[in-house]
Design a protein that fits this description.
The protein is α/β, with parallel strands linked by helices and about 60 residues long. Helix content is about 35%, strand content about 20%. The protein has two helices and three strands; from the N terminus they run E-H-E-E-H. It has helices at about 15-20, 50-65, and strands spanning about 5-10, 25-30, 45. A three-stranded parallel sheet has the order 1-2-3, with no helix packed on it. Strand 1 (about 5-10), helix 1 and strand 2 form a beta-alpha-beta unit. The mean pLDDT is about 95.
Length: about 60
């Protein structure tokens, strides 16, 4: 079963990891390294620090309920 959305939080994009997630419908990558290979397969990505961005995303999800 392939995931609809995969959040790659701090994932660099090592080949063995990418192989396991490549069938995801949407990959969203958060990594501070702008050259991380994960960005080659991600539909959306940001070079933000995940420890800064995840609390903001969590708050947005809570408010949307």
């Amino acid at each position: 079963m392939k995931p609809k959305v995969y959040l790659a939080l701090g994932i660099s994009g090592a080949p063995e990891h990418v192989e396991g997630i490549s069938e995801s419908e949407v990959i969203i990558a958060i990594n501070t390294d702008p050259n991380a290979p994960i960005f080659n397969i991600a539909k959306y990505g940001t070079t933000s620090d995940l420890f800064d961005l995840v609390p903001v995303l969590t708050d947005q999800i809570k408010q949307a309920r």
